[in-house]
Amino acid sequence: MSITNSKKKAASPKGKTILIVACVVLFAAAMIGLAIYNSCSNDGSALRSQTAVQSENFKVDGAMMSYLYSVNYQNFYQYLSMFGVDTSKSLKSQSCPLTTNGTWFDYIMESAKSEATELLALCEQAKKNGVELDAEDLKTVDDYADQLKEIASQYGYSDPNTYLYALTKNPIKVQDVQNVLKLSALATKYTEKFNSEIDLSDERLNSYYEENKESFDGVDYYTWTVKAEDFEIEEGEETTGAQLAQELADTLSKAESVEAFVALIRAQVEKDVVAEEDETEEALAERRQEKVDAAFKEHVLKSSLPELVATWAFSDEAKAGETFIETTDEQDAFTIYMLAKEVYRLDGKARNVRHILFSSDKYEDDAKAQEVLSEFLADKTVEKFTELCAQYSDDTGSNTTGGLYEDVCPGDMVTEFNDWLFDPERVEGDTAVVKAESTGWHIVWYIGESEDSEWEIDAKRAIRSADYQEMVAEYSDAVKVNQGVINLIDA
């Protein structure tokens, strides 16, 4: 289960390539059930003897490519039914609306080919920079064979090769998967080295900011829209809804301060939002407050605003407390903007936190969370928290790392978690049980501020991504794909 908000920023490319080898065997059984292995005289030698993707020093043969295709297929699997795909039939016979005259096999294979191309480009970079797999790396790859045997047995398969055939519909063997693992391990090892050597000095960060200000600078504002259709015009009246809408828009635009503008919005809300049947005063007040809160927009980038509004809000002359009216071509709707804060970047420090999640799928209340919190407070150490996290946490993204999340920015986590973490009164060492409606109960432990501010974290992510893509591109063009071999893969 993930406890990060959907707005969470993309992670850096570090460790990206390992995804091509990780999740297949865990999801496969749910997808194929106890599929029966159809005895086949083809032992995969035809695929294994031909190269599907090749760089100067490395290659992916047809059997390895079949495995990579299978991984990508599983990544898409849960969405295929939404497009009306019949997964019991060959994807080579089913047209894909996401491609031009292509099939679903073509669409998913394109993802696999991109994966293979990136993989080989990274391996070439590893060779160029003297990065090699050591005994420990190779042991991890070798251990995978034993893990695969256990998983195959759990799902009723006599041996892992039978399992892999049922999974991929192609006669690949454990050795083929291990060959992919070796490439992936090498690529990942180089990627980690590359990331560790990226220049993230203050000088480069500031230079990047100056060159990309529009990606970092934002404004705060309140906004309210008045429409002609909001007004009831009695028969015979000469005044039109559009005229009344413009009059109200003009009144709002003449507010002399942010506070005055919010007061006018609140008055309008109280007029428009009336009590429903049997609604309490508290519930009505809450609904009204939600409408007022929704009028506030925080740190909005220039690219997210209509062009005329952006030109006004981001001009050197714009001042907090000023208003701007945007109208429709028909002059029947008016949106008023009140600038609450002039152009700024996010200089606030990110924060570090540890947590243990007790999922609402498993627990009905916070009793267990409170019990575990008490156990932790009796021995408030990282070691104890890590032990309890491994034992209890339902957050698969952090239960093996002591529940640690570093460089958390506002909006990264689910709402209740976020509000607790970024409470202005929060002090290092604070602990609590926080209930989040979408996830469950969290034991949270505030570790302290990060070294970097929010904009610096965003800049580092952007720089890492750009440098990574440039590095991969250096060798990607030299990677060749043999479509004839690709076409031999069953799907």
Looking at this protein, list some descriptive labels.
491 residues, alpha+beta, Chitinase A, domain 3, 3 domains, 4-stranded antiparallel β-sheet, 46% helix
Q: Could you provide a short overview of the structure?
A:
The chain is an alpha+beta fold and 491 residues long. It has helices at 19-22, 24-32, 45-48, 62-80, 104-128, 135-154, 160-168, 174-196, 202-211, 241-253, 258-272, 281-294, 307-313, 367-377, 382-392, 415-421, 454-476, 483-486, and strands at 51-54, 59-61, 218-227, 296-301, 323-327, 333-344, 349-359, 404-408, 431-436, 440-453, 480-481. The strands form three sheets. A four-stranded antiparallel beta sheet has the order 4-3-6-5, with helices on both faces. A four-stranded antiparallel beta sheet has the order 8-7-10-9.
Textual characterization of the structure:
This protein folds into three domains: 16-197, no CATH class; 217-344, Chitinase A, domain 3 (Roll); 349-453, Chitinase A, domain 3 (Roll), CATH 3.10.50.40. It contains 18 helices and eleven strands. It has helices at residues 19-22, 24-32, 45-48, 62-80, 104-128, 135-154, 160-168, 174-196, 202-211, 241-253, 258-272, 281-294, 307-313, 367-377, 382-392, 415-421, 454-476, 483-486; strands at residues 51-54, 59-61, 218-227, 296-301, 323-327, 333-344, 349-359, 404-408, 431-436, 440-453, 480-481. Strand 1 and strand 2 (59-61) form a beta hairpin.
